[in-house]
Amino acid sequence: MYEKIFADAVPNKALINHVISTPTVTSEEGCNIQCFIEIACESYNFGPKEGGGHVCELSDSDAIRDPLDWITKQGFLYVGTQNPCAKAQCPVNARCHSDFEYDTYACVCMPGFTGNHCEGTLQELAVLSCQSLSTATHTSGIYWVDPDGGSP
Questions:
Q1: Model confidence over 33-73: pLDDT tens digits?
Q2: CA 114, 116, 117, 119 torsion: positive or negative?
Q3: Phi and psi at residue 84, to the nearest 5°
Q4: Which residues pair with 11 in a beta bridge?
Q5: 87-132: per-residue pLDDT in tens?
């Protein structure tokens, strides 16, 4: 069953650098509903009225995972979700993605990293030919063939 539980609102705070959508809403409840509907939404910023409605910024992260992006922003209201990533132990080179439907999470390697623990870079896993795989020293089983010595 799909369930998204929202945490208490924090006045004069906002999460920046993770906004995935900016619907215009008439109330804070409308922003809450928009975040509930958007599967990737893990928090939202509800702002002052502009033109025909209020600012509503849906984010794919939260203040727990990205505390440096949680800033003071007068007139805004920050609302996070209770999500599976709050307890996640993802590797340094990985990003946690919540699955609210099954109350689970997945650690996804950041661009340029690969392996079970995101420990290898794509450059480290490059081989010049299929034949050179027999002497390769990495054992993750993931390689890319780079006959020209370029980049993926």
A1: 999 999 889 999 999 998 889 999 999 999 988 899 999 99
A2: negative
A3: -60, -25
A4: 77
A5: 778 888 888 888 777 778 888 888 888 877 787 765 555 555 566 5
Give the Cα separation of 27 and 46 in Å (integer): 9
d(CA 140, CA 7): 39
Give CA 150 to chain center in angstroms: 29
The residue whose two tokens read 């209770």 is 82
Local structure of 104: helix, strand or coil:
strand
| Integer CA distances (angstroms), 30 to 5, 54, 60, 68, in order | 15, 9, 18, 27
Identify the burial level of 62 via C-beta atoms within 10 angstroms of its C-beta, where 0-12 means exposed, 13-18 middle and 19 or more buried.
buried
- Specify whether the CB–CB gap between 42 and 80 falls below 8 A: yes
